[in-house]
Design a protein that fits this description.
With 113 residues, the chain is mainly β. Helix content is 0%, strand content 54%. It has strands spanning 2-7, 10-13, 18-26, 34-39, 46-51, 57-59, 67-72, 77-82, 91-97, 102-103, 107-112. The strands form two sheets. Strands 2, 4, 5, 6, 9, 10 and 11 form a seven-stranded mixed β-sheet that branches. The chain has a four-stranded antiparallel β-sheet with strand order 1-3-8-7, with no helix packed on it. Strand 9 and strand 10 form a beta hairpin. The chain is globular, with a radius of gyration of 13 Å.
Length: 113
């Protein structure tokens, strides 16, 4: 089992920045890729960004060029730097490990116009 704890959400004005963190513990040797998803009110959960253990990244078209995913292997932590935030980025953001199907508890990001 892998446990994930997110932090760093909050309220920010449009154009601002936030940095999310996700710390993994437990069976971390089973972790290859780690990713971020988000779910806005009334919408389905969607993939935002993913990073492999080798550092390969992939982004949703809606965030490419504004968000950056990174990983600190020594700390078993993945980050999501979010710049130029828009009101449509408002959602609960979840950390995810595909190999184990593990999800974090989510952290709220609210972007005001």
């Amino acid at each position: 089992q892998v446990q994930l704890v997110e932090s760093g959400g909050g309220l920010v004005q449009a154009g601002g920045s936030l940095r999310l963190s996700c710390a993994a513990s437990g069976s971390i040797r089973s972790i290859n890729a780690m990713g971020w998803y988000r779910q806005a009110p009334g919408k389905q959960r969607e993939s935002v960004a993913i990073i492999t253990s080798g550092g390969t990244t992939n982004y949703a078209d809606s965030v490419r060029g504004r968000f950056t995913i990174s990983r600190d292997g020594a700390k078993n932590t993945v980050y999501l730097q979010m710049n130029s935030l828009k009101p449509e980025d408002t959602a609960v953001y979840y950390c995810y490990v595909p190999a184990t199907g593990s999800w974090g508890q989510g952290t709220q990001v609210t972007v005001s116009s």
